[in-house]
Amino acid sequence: MNAVVVFDYNGTLLNDVQAGWKACNHMLEHYGRTPVSFEEFRETYTMPWTGFLIHHGVRSKQIDVAAHQREWHRIYDAAIKKLLVPDKRIRELLEFLKAKGVRLGVLSSRNENALKEELAALGIGTFFEAIVGEKGLAQGAHRAEKETRELIAKMRLTKPEEVFYVGDTTADIKVARDHGFISIVVTNGWQTKERLLAMKPDFVMKDIEGLRKIV
């Protein structure tokens, strides 16, 4: 088996959940709603992100996507700056996988330019055959079909049963399922373990270190 591992980014390769929580609470206050606890955030955060806001009382007509994204990223981008440094643990995991002949890719809803810059800052950008993200303004839908098809084409993934897709949300599980990939989720990301288990992924791990035992 010539295994392929495709990673989600936010909450998977980058442990940015606290930053996301901070930015989302800022936006709830921006819309006149009450901030939520960290646990409630993980229990209710969803993709697309508009669903999270509406769940907490924001009216859809209040949301200007472009203005929202600018303000959300102002808070989020400042919060993740301290995280964008080389991570020895992740680098060693990727080296372990590459040594086993595993091919690696990234598929994310993060803006692709920002994604590539941040993976480079983490010191791991060169490990991946393909890095695919949103081309414009990410509106919070799970991996768009065209981005998934782009990754499949770039990596020439003709055997989906050999592809492990690693993420941290129910949307990631759905992407894997829709394309015949093997779904792996980490439980330290943007959604709770209970929500992830309800989707019945193929594998569940505390964090991506668990890949050493699966792939």
Calculate the terminal CA-CA distance, rounded to whole Å.
10 Å
- Tell me the number of strands: 6
- By CATH, the superfamily of the largest domain comes out as HAD superfamily/HAD-like
- Please state the average pLDDT score: 93
Strand order, main sheet: write it out: 3-2-1-4-5-6
Question: Which blocks of ≥5 consecutive residues have pLDDT under 50?
Answer: none
CATH structural architecture of the largest domain: 3-Layer(aba) Sandwich
The general outline is globular
Could you spell the SSE succession in H and E letters?
A: EHHHHHEHEHEHEHEH
Number of domains: 2
Largest sheet: 6 strands, parallel
Structural class call reads alpha/beta
CATH fold field value of the largest domain: Rossmann fold
CATH class of the largest domain: Alpha Beta
Q: Give the % helix.
A: 40-55%
Number of helices: 10
Rg, Å, rounded: 17 Å
Strand residue content: 5-15%
How does this model look, in words?
The model has no long low-confidence stretch (mean pLDDT 93). Helix 6 (112-121) links the parallel strand 2 (103-111) and strand 3 (130-134). The chain folds into 2 domains: 4-15 and 85-214, HAD superfamily/HAD-like (Rossmann fold, 3-Layer(aba) Sandwich); 17-82. With 215 residues, it is α/β, with parallel strands linked by helices. It has 10 helices and 6 strands; from the N terminus they run βαααααβαβαβαβαβα. The chain is 45% helix and 14% strand. It has helices at 17-30, 38-44, 49-55, 65-80, 88-99, 112-121, 145-155, 170-178, 193-198, 211-214; strands spanning 4-7, 103-111, 130-134, 163-167, 182-186, 203-205. The termini are close together. Helix 1 crosses helix 4.
